[in-house]
Specification:
The protein has 427 residues and is mostly helical. It folds into two domains: 1-190, Growth Hormone, Chain: A (Up-down Bundle), CATH 1.20.1250.20; 203-409, MFS general substrate transporter like domains (Growth Hormone, Chain: A, Up-down Bundle). The protein is built from 18 helices and four strands. It has helices at 9-28, 34-41, 48-66, 75-94, 99-127, 130-162, 165-184, 191-194, 198-201, 205-209, 212-229, 235-241, 250-275, 277-296, 305-327, 336-361, 373-384, 387-408; strands spanning 7-8, 363-364, 370-371, 419-420. It has a two-stranded parallel ribbon. A hairpin with a 5-residue loop joins β2 (363-364) and β3. α14 (277-296) runs antiparallel to α18.
C-alpha cells in the first residue's frame, strides 16, 4: 500500500485521469453503440435515448445520496468501491438479454459512476496545492477528449469485430485494472478525517447548501451545464440536416474537435493557475458566444464544419477548466467529497434540463432540416453571458476566505499526503 511513503503528484494525476477515462468512456460509448445493441436485443430504436438517460438519472440520484456519506470514508477506499461497482455494472450491460436488464445495468453504472467522478475530483483537490490545481484538473479533464478521440472509435471497431457486447467487457476489464491501481498505488486520502476541526466534519447537507459560496458555485455549475447541453445533443443532427455535412465525415469533425479539446485542457489549466479563473473563463465564454453565433445562427457556407467543431471545443475547454478549478476551491477539505457529489448531481440534472429545453424549442421541418436552432443557440449564448459575472463573484469570495485562512492557520496543516518533489518538473 501507499501508506507512509511519498507519492508522485504526476502518478496521482495519471491514475485519476485513468479513472475518469474509464468512467467517461463507459458513458459516452453507449449512444454510438445504440443501433448495434438495439438490433441485437430487439429493442426499438426509440428506446435508445431512454437507455442513455437511465445512466444520467441514476448518477444524479447517486450524487444527492453521496452528499450524505462520502466524506465519512478514506477517499481512496471509496473510489475503489465505486470503480469496482462500475466494473460489475458495465459487465452486466454486456450480459443483458433485453431492454429491462440493460436498463438495470445502466442504472447501476450511474449509481457507481457518479460518485467515482466526484471522488476523483476531490482527491485531486485534496492532494494538489491550489497553485498547481488548474494544471492537474486540466490534465484529468483531458480524459474526456481522449475518450472521444480514441475510446468511442475503438468501441465501434470492437463492436464490428466481436459484436456489441465486447466493448462492455473490454471497458469492464480496463475498469478492473484502474480499480486495482486505486487500491495499491494511490495514497490514503484521509486529511478530511484527521484535520483538527471536528465541527467541520459534522456539517450536514442542508447546512452546506445554506452557504452563500456553495449556492453561487452550484448556480454557476447549473448555468454552465445548461448552456452546454441545450446545444451539444443537437450538433450532429444540425450539421447533417441543416449544413449538409456527410455522415461518413462526422468522425473527422469529432476527431479534430477532440484533439483541440485535449490541447486546450492541457494549456488552460496552467493559464488558470497563472491568471485566475475569471480571466480564463471570461475569454472562454466570449469565444463560446462567438462560435455559437457563427456556427448555429449566422453560419457562413465557406466555413468548414471541422473548424466549427474546433472553435466550439476550444471555447468550452477554456470555460470548463476555469469553472471546475474555481469550484474545487469552494469547499473546505472535510466536506469536499460531499460538495463534489452534490455538484455532480446538479451537473447531471442541469444537463437533462438543457436537453429538455432544446427538445421543446426544436422542430423537424418539412424539408428535412432542423427548425428552431437559432432559438437554441440564443438560449445557450444568454446563459453563457451569465458565467463571467459569477466567476468574478465566486473567485473574489474564495480568495478573500483563503487569505483570511492563511493568516489564521499555519502552513504546516497543508496537504493530506506529502507528494514527492520530483513530481513538480514545472516548478
Amino acid at each position: 500500500m501507499a501508506t507512509g511513503r511519498q507519492v508522485s503528484e504526476r502518478a496521482v494525476v495519471f491514475l485519476i485521469g485513468a479513472v475518469q477515462f474509464v468512467n467517461i468512456l463507459d458513458f459516452v460509448m453507449v449512444m454510438p453503440l445504440g443501433p448495434d445493441f438495439a438490433k441485437g436485443l430487439g429493442i426499438a430504436a426509440s428506446h435508445i435515448g431512454t437507455i442513455g438517460g437511465a445512466y444520467t438519472a441514476a448518477a444524479s440520484v447517486a450524487g444527492l445520496a453521496g452528499g450524505y456519506f462520502l466524506d465519512r470514508y478514506d477517499r481512496r477506499k471509496a473510489l475503489a468501491v465505486s470503480m469496482l461497482g462500475l466494473v460489475v455494472a458495465t459487465a452486466a450491460g454486456g450480459l443483458a438479454t433485453g431492454l429491462t436488464t440493460l436498463l438495470l445495468a445502466r442504472v447501476a453504472a450511474g449509481i457507481f459512476g457518479g460518485p467515482a467522478t466526484s471522488l476523483s475530483l476531490s482527491i485531486i483537490a485534496d492532494l494538489v496545492p491550489v497553485e498547481r490545481r488548474g494544471r492537474a484538473l486540466g490534465a484529468v479533464m483531458g480524459a474526456f477528449s481522449v475518450a472521444s478521440i480514441l475510446g468511442v472509435p475503438l468501441a465501434l471497431a470492437m463492436a464490428e469485430w466481436g459484436g456489441w457486447r465486447m466493448p462492455f467487457f473490454v471497458v469492464a476489464g480496463l475498469g478492473l485494472l484502474v480499480a486495482a491501481g486505486a487500491i495499491f498505488l494511490l495514497p490514503p486520502v484521509r486529511g478530511h478525517l484527521e484535520q483538527a476541526h471536528p465541527a467541520a466534519r459534522k456539517v450536514g447537507v442542508l447546512e452546506l447548501l445554506g452557504r452563500t459560496d456553495v449556492q453561487l458555485s452550484y448556480l454557476m455549475t447549473a448555468v454552465v451545464m445548461m448552456a452546454s447541453f441545450v446545444i451539444i445533443p443537437n450538433i450532429s443532427a444540425y450539421v447533417q440536416q441543416n449544413l449538409g455535412y456527410p455522415r461518413e465525415s462526422l468522425k473527422l469533425a469529432y476527431f479534430v474537435g477532440g484533439l483541440v479539446s485535449f490541447a486546450t485542457l492541457r494549456v488552460a489549466g496552467p493559464m488558470v493557475d497563472r491568471h485566475g479563473a475569471f480571466v480564463v473563463g471570461t475569454v472562454g465564454s466570449v469565444l463560446a458566444v462567438v462560435s455559437t453565433d457563427v456556427g448555429f445562427v449566422h453560419y457562413p457556407r465557406w466555413l468548414p464544419v471541422p473548424v466549427l467543431f474546433m472553435a466550439f471545443m476550444l471555447a468550452m475547454g477554456m470555460r470548463n477548466v476555469a469553472y471546475n478549478t474555481l469550484t474545487s476551491r469552494v469547499p473546505d477539505n472535510p466536506v469536499r467529497a460531499r460538495f463534489m457529489s452534490l455538484q455532480s448531481a446538479i451537473q447531471h440534472m442541469a444537463a437533462a434540463v438543457g436537453a429538455f429545453v432544446s427538445v421543446k424549442l426544436l422542430t423537424d421541418l418539412p424539408d428535412g432540416t432542423l427548425g428552431g436552432m437559432p432559438w437554441v443557440a440564443g438560449v445557450s449564448m444568454g446563459l453563457t453571458l451569465l458565467v463571467p459575472p459569477m466567476l468574478w463573484v465566486v473567485e473574489r469570495r474564495v480568495r478573500s476566505r483563503e487569505r483570511a485562512r492563511a493568516l489564521a492557520v499555519p502552513p504546516a496543516q497543508g496537504m493530506a499526503v506529502p507528494l514527492s518533489p520530483e513530481a513538480h518538473p514545472h516548478q
